[in-house]
Amino acid sequence: MILCGHTHAGQIFPFSLLVWLDQKYIYGHYHLQDCQMIVSSGCGFWGPPVRIFTKSEIVSIHLEPENQA
């Protein structure tokens, strides 16, 4: 499992479109071969104190042990 720090998910539209074009993993849950990755969009901001058309989030992950056969 890979847990990645916040990306602001682009933070401010329409500038967020440039971020989505440049970066492969912006925000969400991804399946990468035998691994899972979670990228948070974070709950704050950088620079101007606004977020336009991007969601703030705090991720809560519940881990359970794998069944041992």
From TrEMBL:
Which cellular component terms (GO) are annotated to the entry? membrane
Q: Does the keyword Hydrolase apply?
A: yes
Q: Which organism is it from?
A: Helicobacter bizzozeronii (strain CIII-1)
Q: Name one GO molecular function term.
A: metal ion binding
Provide the protein name: Predicted phosphohydrolase
Return the InterPro entries for the record. Answer: Metallo-depent_PP-like, Metallophosphoesterase_sf
Output the GO biological process annotations, alphabetical, semicolon-separated.
lipid A biosynthetic process
Q: Which UniProt keywords apply?
A: Hydrolase, Metal-binding
